[in-house]
Amino acid sequence: MRSVFSFLLIAFSLVLFSCKQNPTDKELLPSDIVKNPNSADGLVDAGDMPVMKFDTDFHDFGRVIQGEKVSFGFRFTNSGKSDLIISGVSTSCGCTVPDFPKAPVKPGESHKIDVKFDSEGRRGFQNKTITISSNAQPATQVVRIKAEVILPEESN
After folding, report:
1. For 65-118, what is each residue's pLDDT tens digit?
2. What is d(CA 117, CA 147) in angstroms, rounded to the nearest whole number?
3. Residue 81: which CATH number?
4. What domain count does the chain have?
5. pTM (2 d.p.)
């Protein structure tokens, strides 16, 4: 009897403490602004979808002295017909940190994704990719940065 009681107490504790709290209203986006034109038959109607158009998808920082921190803003415009939502931005290296708009980008609006590159501990040519996930078609886009990291004594 004691083992049954212990089992029930453990099971109840797991259920009680493993439930996630409901997100606040600030974390929720209205579901009507997220549209997915993909269908089970593979046909896609992307006519009303957001379109993320970058001014440029590549930036070369040139020569950077080791330890220097540099940044660049990848400017983009939502040239589609509905709100653009960026769900995440990932980088190929921890030395590259992105900052992107969290609010929906209205059709016709322009914003930028700021990318900071920290050259500390790096040397030589560096090529980093930044992958943007959104509700646009295509759902992921990649931009790149490049730099040649040199030692301080090589900068003369």
Report:
1. 999 999 999 999 999 999 999 999 999 999 999 999 999 999 999 999 999 999
2. 9
3. 2.60.40.10
4. 1
5. 0.72
